[in-house]
Design goal:
Blueprint lengths: L2 H7 L7 E6 L4 E6 L3 H10 L1 E6 L2 E6 L1 H12 E3 L5 H7 L4 H8 L2 H17 L2 H8 L1
Antiparallel strand pairs: 1-2, 2-5, 3-4
Amino acid sequence: MTILDSFLGAKPAVEITEKVFIKRLGDSITIKALTGEDIDKIRAQATYPTKNGKKTELKVNEEEVSRLLIVKATVEPNFADKQMLEHFGASDAGECVQKALLAGEIMVLQTAVLSLSGFDDEDEVEEVKN
């Protein structure tokens, strides 16, 4: 088997899903893997110019990145659902994530999304090197 065969036999990122159990809710949230392009767009969306004296610098709002990662990766529930937005008094899906989930739950979901998207493969890379 060649590396090409491995790529051709792999599931597309959009088909890679996982359920993350949220103890407080007694239920699971279904997430999907994100591509590098998805993550780049999220980081760009959460980047803002800030004044630093006479210079203008770009600053990434990491909390917003976290919320947007969850919004983009969540298959079920839909944080942009009208009922969800109304129930939590949120103006958009990112704000709904912030209001619907506890800080630790956001961290668990963010970690799960990044892991599912391949950001925990360091051990595998090290194994191959040795």
